[in-house]
Amino acid sequence: MVTCVKYTSAMLLLRRCHSLTRFGPFNTQRHQVTPAVFVSGAAAVRMGVLRAHGPRWRHGLAGLLAGTGAVLAYGLHHHKAEQQDSSTVQTIEKTSAFPIISQEEVTTHRSLEHGVWVTYKGGVYDITEFVAMHPGGDKILLAAGGALEPFWALYAVHNQEHVLEMLSEYKVGELSAEDVKKQKAIKTSDPYSTDPERHPALHINSLKPFNAEPPPELLSDSFITPSAIFFKRNHLPVPQVDEASYQLHIEGLPGGVLTLSLEELKTRFPKHTITATLQCAGNRRSEMNMVKQVKGLNWGIAAISNATWGGRGSGTCCWPLWAFHVQFEGLDKDVTGTTYGASIPLNKAVNEEGDVLLAYEMNGQDIPPDHGYPVRAVVPGTVGARNVKWLGKIIVSAEESSSHWQQNDYKGFSPGTDWDTVDFKSAPAIQELPIQSAITVPTDGAVVDRSSEEVTVKGYAWSGGGREVVRVDVSLDGGKTWQVAQMRSSEKGQAPGPSPPPGRAWAWKLWEVTAPLPAEAQELEIVCKAVDNSYNMQPDTVPPIWNLRGVLSNAWHRVKVEIREDDNEE
Amino acid sequence: MVTCVKYTSAMLLLRRCHSLTRFGPFNTQRHQVTPAVFVSGAAAVRMGVLRAHGPRWRHGLAGLLAGTGAVLAYGLHHHKAEQQDSSTVQTIEKTSAFPIISQEEVTTHRSLEHGVWVTYKGGVYDITEFVAMHPGGDKILLAAGGALEPFWALYAVHNQEHVLEMLSEYKVGELSAEDVKKQKAIKTSDPYSTDPERHPALHINSLKPFNAEPPPELLSDSFITPSAIFFKRNHLPVPQVDEASYQLHIEGLPGGVLTLSLEELKTRFPKHTITATLQCAGNRRSEMNMVKQVKGLNWGIAAISNATWGGRGSGTCCWPLWAFHVQFEGLDKDVTGTTYGASIPLNKAVNEEGDVLLAYEMNGQDIPPDHGYPVRAVVPGTVGARNVKWLGKIIVSAEESSSHWQQNDYKGFSPGTDWDTVDFKSAPAIQELPIQSAITVPTDGAVVDRSSEEVTVKGYAWSGGGREVVRVDVSLDGGKTWQVAQMRSSEKGQAPGPSPPPGRAWAWKLWEVTAPLPAEAQELEIVCKAVDNSYNMQPDTVPPIWNLRGVLSNAWHRVKVEIREDDNEE
Predict the structure, then answer these.
(1) d(CA A142, CA B245)
(2) Which segments of B291-381 are extended strands (E)?
(3) Where is the Cytochrome b5 heme-binding domain (chains A, B) (predicted)?
């Protein structure tokens, strides 16, 4: 039954509509149902018509059930993940007169042809029609004929009221008491129980998998981000890797599979060190959410950080002529054994000027568990998603990675493209990122006293592809007039290092400007925009770059600050 | 005397102010004078105050006298160069009682220390204070102590009323009749008399040097732009090069100077062929002029074209370790013998994937005179200015080219930077260009009949640095809603070639979209914006990217079209 706490009348209407269209518990030709959150009382009256136009609602439906890697941020208030242990989540209906179905019967429905059934907490659900809408693609079929619990334990984001509401719409029966007992006997352990402890300063966007960003004002305090507050972006549980038995397998080279121990990786090749900024494709997604709901973690401006990485350069091997891509596979895996994966173009990997590292050090120490211990790929200038952590395998290949994250995620689309029309094959996998900058100080809504007479604005700026940031413009009046910020590429008070060679500017720049408070202004709209040495600029506004996955959010960053008049002078 | 036909009252006021501050004809400590075009009647009353703030007016002054390479486009109506043969230009004042000065006396004033005097058509001018404002820098000193005519013959843009008006302000005397006679005996020949004939379809922005662009609707007709209408951007007269005696000198290599004849260049190295788009840094400058006056040719949207180039690859040589730049010198030179010059980073030149060519063919034929016959540099993905034509010398160097065009031109600045505050050293020379697109059909102001029911929009899209254009978004409603255009990378009806390898997409894409006319609209604001595979986007609007040289104009392109209702239906 579709329900929504805030829309009781809509709920009742939907309940009626629902009963009108239900043909029976075993009917596998189910109809799509409008999510209640999209339905006003009046609109719900037209439900019969709307039902005939299922695709119109796919966006809404798909937004409620997130798939592998496509983690849901439903509603603007979910800035911090609302964690609910799965044992405390209750399904809505407990007493409805659904037929009793055996696990044996459920098991026969594990394909689109025979219907796709799943169980959850004693309920049986026919999700056949939802498969096509699942953002994670047909990976959802892995749960077919069985229980959802082990999958949802992996992707804790499913444990939300909205998701359960949607699921309830697909209910077709109750699992037999005997089978429920059997299921409970199979204890579902929490795969995240071995995740490391994290720094309390982090703003958590999702706990399982763990995704968190540092407070902006901390971010711009250090040119090199301390590892503890370096933004964390995990797709799966942190794998437990034993240093002694760790092996890195490299496939696709002329001599067959090459296997290296950690010791060999560290001692057989010279160590290279680079300072490189990593940024999540979804950094600043929250600004897109303010325009129109997108799918993905509701990142603020701090899904970006800068570190010094040490490891073996990847540009020293010989590579076969037929190869065009280098695929990376992580050791982090889901319940089906599928590992995280991504690939980069071969010419980035083999070009010594590409500075790709098989890194085992971060900021002078072993790479911490959250950042890929013991070895990760560092692909400077390239979106975080290709910097594969807990690296288990490298495959030199004629093809891109076939992983979900390479093929059906981390791509950009036109603002006019929605989940009904999107063709993931039509867009290239994000590699190099565009020019980016943001204001870390002051934060939006801050108050500045008139008596301070001036305001100091701080932030970061970075561009992908090794393009150096050459200028940051700052405006206090919403973009009408601009001044040029001072930039630095070292810790405060330290001399900057030598300029990077052309095309190898991997590290961000921090910037700062102090300006007098405009005499007449009561509020400042502070804006920043950066320009790189290809003279690419940030777009002015968010709506024209809005995209359904909320990636590549790099419009001018805007912060409003109130000027409080000095009481003594009034 | 500052005068302006349109501001007679201002002229009279200025004349008064001028007499108040003139200390004598031989006073080398001259004051800057506000150009009349900036002065309203009321404002001119404050002239005494304004005079004390010389720098405030430098922008205006500098805008009136263009230097080497910084060709002036004063006023929006100067879309086509208003050519005046120098013999017909008259100085304003003929009968004033200035002292008679000998050429010998003039000759003693050829430095900032002793004053900088020049003669022009029998007048003597003390331009000491103007030297610092000359956009071409101290190159103006080359004329010190002598006649301006030979320089102005080279840069015909000086032959404009405004320039003469400004010059007259600096008048300090009349050249003796005897010396005038001697000067006339030295015939100043027109260095442009041997320039080639050009295609009549070209829109001419400046005749001497020749700068012209094709009509937009022709531009998008062909994937490969025919050489005859390929945009022309000359800084100097087209040099006459004898094929038999042509030599290319390459300096800075370990073995000393290498000299190659055209025959050797063509036969001793394999010929490489690439299709690459070239774009002038000033393409679409006219849109910046509409925001606020900039300096430079008033290019429309067609200072960009695409050709197939054949020649020797530059990536096959050996290069010394100390080198970081490759300088190119043209055979085109000014009266002082200074040649056009520019440089590119060494890693672009030596990387085989950089595809830099020493090109001797354009579209399958010898390179035409206007495009660099017999040999030019083709530096794909890089601003036109570095694709040096009539290539005479290559210098492998630790330093960038010291030329005006590398150091003090072709750089981008903040909108808040003006000619008083600009520090050319603070910005990098433009190399790779940012993402660009424009609408070629329909043109601004076109009329579409309602009965046609739909509108077809065409254009081009390209990005620098070998970044492939992956999408063009088109809006008919000023940017509120967007659709994705169809792109092609071959002539219409022909199969596209293979996709370029990553980072080597040198050619533009042409795009097209046909959409129904919105039922209620009376006017369409058609907008396009492109995105490259680094997901860089074009900025929304022009003012925030405005810069004093009017380069890098790549905001969304906007075209307004009127829908004419069908009379029969009214």
Answers:
(1) 75
(2) 304-313, 325-333, 339-345, 357-362, 365-366, 376-378
(3) 98-176
Which of A322 and B13 is assigned the larger pLDDT?
A322
Mutation target to probe the B interface, by most B beta carbons within 10 A, among A425, A463, A472, A536 is A536
**Positive or negative CA dihedral for A69, A70, A76, A77?**
negative
Find the DSSP H helices in A304-361: 346-350
Query: Residue A36's closest CA among A174, A172, A171, A168?
Result: A168
With residues binned 3-state (H G I as helix, E B as strand, rest as coil), the percentages for chain B, rounded to 5, are 25, 25, 50
Rg (CA), chain A: 26
Binary contact (B541, A540; C-beta < 8 A): yes
Radius of gyration, alpha carbons of chain B: 26
CB A4 within 8 A of CB A13: no
Helix (H) or strand (E) holding B165: helix B161-168
Instruction: Quote the pTM value.
Output: 0.74
**Of A25, A144, A156, A137, residue with least CA distance to A88:** A156
Contacts of B486 in chain A (CB under 8 A): none
CB proximity list for B381: less than 8 A, separation 6 or greater: B276, B432, B433, B464, B465, B466, B467, B506
* Residue B552 at interface with chain A, using a CB cutoff of 8 Å: yes
Q: Which of A17, A170, A280, A360 is catalytic?
A: A280
**Which amino acid appears at position B95 of this protein?**
T
Task: Give yes or no for A497 touching B (CB within 8 A).
Answer: no
- The Cα–Cα gap between B282 and B305 comes to 13
What amino acid is encoded at A467 in this protein?
R
Binned at pLDDT 50, 70 and 90, residue A497 comes out as confident
Is residue B516 helix, strand or coil?
Answer: strand
Taking the CA of residue B422 as centre, how many other CA atoms within 13 Å lie in the half-sphere pointing to its CB? 25
Q: In the sheet where A115-120 sits, what is the strand order?
A: A100-101, A171-175, A123-126, A115-120, A110-111
Question: Is B410 in the active site?
Answer: yes
Task: Tally the C-alpha atoms within 13 A of residue A244's C-alpha that lie toward its C-beta.
Answer: 0
Q: What pLDDT digit, counting tens, does each position of B406-457 carry?
A: 999 999 999 999 999 999 999 999 999 999 999 999 999 999 999 999 999 9
Distance from C-alpha of A48 to C-alpha of A488, rounded to nearest angstrom:
61
- Catalytic annotation present for B162: no
Q: How far is B503 from chain A (nearest CA, A)?
A: 9
Contacts of A481 in chain B (CB under 8 A): 415-416
Of B51, B58, B109, B158, which is the active-site residue?
B158
Q: Is the ipTM of this complex over 0.95?
A: no
- Given a contact cutoff of 8 angstroms between Cβ atoms, the answer to whether A328 and A388 are in contact is yes
CA angle A365, A370, A375 (to 5 degrees): 55
Task: Give the A window 316-375 contacts with B, CB below 8 Å.
Answer: 324, 345, 347-348, 353
B280 is catalytic: yes
A371 catalytic residue (yes or no): no
Check if B416 contacts A (Cβ < 8 Å): yes
Residue A442: cis peptide before it, omega within 30 degrees of 0: yes
DSSP assignment letter at B9: H
Quick check: helix, strand or coil at residue A393? Answer: strand
| Domains of chain B and CATH, by start | 100-185 (3.10.120.10), 203-408 (3.90.420.10), 435-564 (2.60.40.650)
φ/ψ (deg, to 5) at A227? -55, -35
Residues of B in contact with A503 (CB under 8 A): 345, 347
Q: Any CB–CB contact under 8 A between A545 and chain B?
A: yes
pLDDT in the model for residue B139: 65
The DSSP line for A91-144 is -S-SS--PPEE-HHHHHT-EETTTEEEEEETTEEEE-GGGGGG-TTGGGGGGGT
Contact flag A533-B431 (C-beta cutoff 8 Å): yes
